[in-house]
């Protein structure tokens, strides 16, 4: 847990120190990638709770999920399909599912 | 817990996540802080307009400064004569004729809708003024700052002179602007056409507008030296 918090803090300060932001045109892609990342992290915590946590799956899932999500939204944008909302909805649903699972697990444990 | 095994990977992933979160937060704040671009464009257009106006006024000041006393007062007199309507004017412009509807009034409709009213004339005059008309007359009556356009039974009174339809409105100004201001979609011409009221616009290179014929009398008002109202 400490590692996760320290990682978050280090990343956050890095983000503050970096002088550039996301250009407005790419902000939707970036937010979808962010959703995918959050989904992966919650999925990882869920896996850890149920004891099926795997290092490789977690890391590869984290990066490929976010990159693929951003790529799909980009392609959808080119084709005139609003995949942005679909991705947000799908990732949002999964995040809440995972959250629910984690909560149930913690409640059962204590 | 098996979580111990992937401590480093979790720290790494969390670092990336934190980085992305903060970047996203920062760019959202940036978008919120910056003015919407439309507003910026609007302000830029307004600035341009103000600058052009400023330049024009400066040129006028320079002109007036450069003149001798006599020439100066002559120019001011000329301007006042033109503004007050004391002198006939001519120049490019339009002649608009408006006449009562030729359609037969339907039983269920108010027959008043098929006639030209003072409000219709007012609307046309208003549009013309907004489009930059420099001088206006209605059936030979020059419109001055004190002119009224008022319903007087079956006629319309302008400068306290009554006239019946058809009404001929003359305007001096940019021909295209004047024609477009009347003919624009959803504009005056459109709303009058619904009732079959005849409105024709004729752009001309030379429109003559008569002078204001009555005498101006100021019985009650006197000139004041105060530049601003004091309490």
From TrEMBL, chain A:
Coiled coil: none annotated. It is a multi-pass membrane protein. Belongs to the sbp family. It holds the Pfam family DUF1290. The keyword Signal does not apply. This is Small basic protein. It comes from Anaerovibrio lipolyticus. The keyword Membrane applies.
From TrEMBL, chain B:
The keyword Coiled coil applies. It holds the Pfam family DUF881. Residues 40-74 form a coiled coil. Keywords: Coiled coil. Transmembrane segments: none annotated. It comes from the Bacteria. PANTHER family: UPF0749 PROTEIN RV1825 (PTHR37313), UPF0749 PROTEIN YLXX (PTHR37313:SF2). Belongs to the UPF0749 family. This is Division initiation protein. The lineage of its organism: Bacteria, Bacillati, Bacillota, Negativicutes, Selenomonadales.
């Amino acid at each position: 847990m400490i590692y996760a918090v320290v990682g978050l803090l280090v990343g956050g300060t890095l983000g503050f120190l970096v002088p550039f932001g996301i250009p407005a045109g790419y902000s939707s892609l970036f937010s979808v990638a962010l959703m995918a990342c959050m989904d992966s992290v919650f999925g990882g915590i869920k896996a850890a709770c149920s004891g099926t946590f795997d290092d490789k799956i977690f890391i590869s899932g984290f990066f490929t999920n976010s990159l693929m999500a951003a790529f799909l939204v980009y392609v959808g944008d080119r084709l005139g399909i609003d995949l942005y909302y679909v991705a947000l909805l799908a990732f949002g649903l999964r995040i809440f599912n995972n959250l629910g699972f984690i909560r149930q697990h913690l409640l059962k444990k204590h | 817990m098996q979580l111990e095994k992937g401590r480093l990977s979790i720290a790494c992933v969390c670092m990336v996540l934190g980085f992305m979160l903060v970047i996203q937060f920062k760019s959202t704040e940036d978008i919120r802080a910056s003015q919407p671009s439309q507003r910026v464009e609007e302000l830029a257009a307004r600035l341009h307009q103000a600058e052009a106006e400023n330049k024009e006024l400066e040129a006028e000041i320079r002109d007036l400064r450069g003149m001798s006393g006599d020439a100066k007062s002559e120019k001011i007199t000329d301007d006042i004569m033109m503004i007050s309507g004391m002198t006939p004017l001519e120049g490019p412009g339009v002649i608009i004729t408006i006449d009562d509807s030729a359609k037969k009034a339907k039983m269920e409709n108010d027959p008043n809708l098929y006639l030209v009213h003072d409000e219709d004339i007012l609307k046309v005059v208003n549009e013309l003024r907004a489009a930059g008309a420099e001088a206006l007359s209605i059936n030979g009556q020059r419109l001055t700052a004190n002119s009224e356009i008022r319903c007087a039974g079956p006629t319309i009174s302008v400068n306290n002179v009554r006239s019946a339809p058809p009404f001929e409105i003359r305007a001096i100004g940019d021909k295209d602007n004047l024609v477009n201001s009347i003919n624009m979609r959803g504009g005056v011409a459109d709303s009058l056409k619904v009732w079959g009221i005849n409105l024709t616009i004729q752009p001309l290179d030379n429109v003559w507008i008569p002078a204001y014929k009555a005498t101006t009398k100021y019985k009650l008002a006197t000139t004041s030296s105060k530049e601003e109202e004091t309490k």
